[in-house]
Amino acid sequence: MPKIAHHISIPGLQLDAASKVPAYKQVYGHISAAILSKQIRAGQRMPSSRVLAESIGVSRNIILLAYEQLELEGYITGSVGKGSFVSEHLDNDLPAIKHKKEKIATAENTQHIAYDYPVSKMFMDRESSKAGKKPFQNPEPALDHFPFKVWAKCAYKVFRELEFSHLNYNDAQGYFPLREAIASYLRTNRAVNCEAGQIIITNGTQQGLNLIASVLVKKGQQFWMEDPGYINAHAVFTHAGANAIHIPAGHDGFDVDWAKKNHPDASLVYITPSHQFPLGGTMPVGKRLLLTDWAAKNKMWIVEDDYDNEFQYTSGPIPSLQGLDQYKRVLYLGTFSKVLFPGLRIGYLVLPDEGMVKAFAHAKAFADRQNSITDQMILHEFMSNGHFTIHLRKMRVLYKKRQDVLLALINQYGEDLIRAEKQPGGMHLIAWLREDINDSEMAAYLNNNGVTVLPVSAYAVKFKPKPGLLLGYTAFNDKQLTDGLLKMITLIKAKIVKV
Ligand SMILES: Cc1ncc(COP(=O)(O)O)c(C=O)c1O
Prior knowledge:
It is built from 15 helices and 14 strands. It is an alpha/beta fold. It is globular and about 85 Å long. The N and C termini lie far apart (70 Å). Bound molecules: pyridoxal-5'-phosphate (PLP). Pyridoxal-5'-phosphate (PLP) binds next to helix 7. Pyridoxal-5'-phosphate binds at residues 139, 204-206, 230, 272, 277, 305, 307, 335, 337, 342, 347.
């Protein structure tokens, strides 16, 4: 098939017949300004002189003269038969564009902003392809081990077989075959009681939380929140007007008895029972039953965030709390951010009944209509052909090995400064600091010196935790872990001596 070269159109090009400026100069002036302001970018193909002349109703000679001038001044380059292109050396560093960026950054229209969203800095200004990943950046999958070739084959099959109907608006609840694959996976691997009809496909857990806030949360309502806990959940519900009640949490989840006794009026609770975030423990069955029983009697919704439980290294995955609940009080959240890759932005919500599904499907349609259909189809292809299970199995082996490496390093070099315990699962370890060290000051100092960590205290609101640092290990090979840990210990020692 012959290669079709696409040229650009020149935005807003019109000649002023009354002007004293010659027509070719007007064309030249307009195009050079468009190049300087980056409306037209380096490497783009210019329209042919004939096409451009016809589109603005002038003789071709006028365009040829303008192009000649542009070429002379280095704005465009051309060769016979291939056409003209915006010069490659006009890259992003043009002064004109820098000026434009500064103008955007300093625009002060903040008085019109109704909500100031509490979003973590780590999600802003982030060009993931460029952001150099440093140990111990928090729990990220080993993206270099993702089977992209297999994913590409799935994508190819999807696009080859795509029907026109797929390209239209689809079911807001999500692509049905994908929901079936997820339901089947959840029943067998996570002991979740569910059918495809109970699932809403979301843009990750974050959207699941937002949908819950928009459907269930009322202003002034109280919700229990693990402390320390997942600050993003806290932010979503408080933003919706609910009042957070912070419940002390430890390795085995939060203190249900304390919460019942001190704050019996809460009508929603957010928890991470399979792998408490950030401390890492599992909520024992006794507490789970206590909670589901209380929720049933007090009409409380339990939001179960099962974010990384696929990664259990010593046993099979811990069964979900949803599977234990006989009263249909649980909204179960899952995500592919940890098991596949965060940029995919696919997660799911498992809802307890039909009425709830309908309300959430409406909320999803209201928020963004639906997830991308092709991404859903590719994921379905990936899951239904067994690639998902194979990938999970491989990552479990790899991540367990990486945790062992990091633990051994901490044991060998941590002295009395940091210690860590083996974790049965998860994607991060907590390096507990000597008790006299302030973890947020230490984390800020380490981050400024090239070691990426988060302090445990960043996740605590009311109850002061012991000082510790979250160390993500899954994305780093042995050398990166070793170099990172040795650098971290050297820095901690230097900081302590200075103080
Ligand atoms: C506790 C917890 N839940 C869920 C997620 C995943 O969020 P999402 O699916 O929006 O990427 C994370 C990510 O770090 C997390 O730490």
